[in-house]
Design goal:
There is one protein chain. By secondary structure, the chain is of the alpha/beta class. The protein has a single domain, classed as Alpha-Beta Barrel (TIM Barrel). Helix content is about 35%, strand content about 20%. The chain has 8 helices and 8 strands. An 8-stranded parallel beta sheet has the order 1-8-7-6-5-4-3-2. Helix 6 links the parallel strand 7 and strand 8. The chain is globular. The protein starts with a strand and ends with a helix. The structure holds 5-O-phosphono-D-xylulose (5SP) and cobalt (II) ion (CO). The site of cobalt (II) ion has 6 residues, from strand 2.
């Protein structure tokens, strides 16, 4: 049976009470940390000093999602800061293979993300260099958006290529993941699910995480 992972995004958490907000999601698999630079996306969140501090207090491993320009320069520093996985955007990296190797050398899992309109086909040859492919299921930049069904065929094509080449990487989806949408993403081939507003918007985050697990595993 495939291990399904739920990674809540702290983008929807209370940034003034981050330590307490991290405690609310102790039953999840990792904490998803959205780094935005106001250039690659029209929003600004947090950077290395805050990620370092989150790493010190978080009971969960850090799944860092970099929505920043010049990923080649910055991403390795997030791996060195102790992130368990670092995901850069394909659209923001000039040498993705070199970068993935640097991330792995620094002890992190290497992830690469695709915007909803970015096809996976140009990147099929480098999937073997990655631990994770993140298919964005909303336009990156903000939490609370609706899941884009138009991304499902891309998830299916990526999953087919991964199975065909017998590669170990997993597919992560991020954006609009709720109890209603998670099964569609799971059926298409995703096994790692980022959920921001559906977890942090709930009164009981642990119950929301559990409901997402149940909804995703209806397929399996
Ligand atoms: O990377 C992003 C947004 O760019 C995400 O990680 C969001 O934080 C997901 O939020 P929800 O769509 O689940 O509310
Ligand atoms: Co994200």
């Amino acid at each position: 049976m495939t291990h399904l992972r739920i990674n809540p995004s702290i983008l929807s958490a209370d940034f003034v009470n981050l330590e307490a907000e991290l405690q609310r999601i102790g039953s999840a698999d990792a904490v998803h940390v959205d780094v935005m630079d106001n250039h690659f996306v029209p929003n600004l969140t947090l950077g290395l000093p805050v990620v370092r501090r989150i790493r010190e207090v978080s009971p969960l491993p850090l799944d860092v999602h970099l929505m920043i320009e010049d990923a080649d320069r910055w991403a390795p520093q997030y791996a060195e800061a102790g992130a368990a996985s670092v995901t850069f955007h394909a659209e923001a990296a000039t040498a993705p293979v070199k970068l993935a190797r640097e991330l792995r050398d620094a002890g992190a899992k290497a992830g690469m993300a695709l915007r909803p309109a970015t096809p996976v086909e140009p990147y099929l040859d480098l999937l073997g260099e990655l631990d994770m492919l993140l298919v964005m299921t909303v336009e990156p930049g903000f939490g609370g958006q609706s899941f884009l069904d138009l991304t499902l065929p891309k998830i299916r094509r990526a999953a087919k290529a991964i199975r065909g080449a017998d590669l170990p990487l997993v597919i992560q989806v991020d954006g609009g993941i709720t109890e209603d949408t998670i099964l569609r993403a799971a059926e298409a081939g995703a096994t790692v699910f980022v959920a921001g507003s559906s977890v942090y918007g709930a009164d009981d985050a642990a119950a929301a995480i559990s409901a997402l697990r149940t909804a995703a595993s209806r397929k399996h």
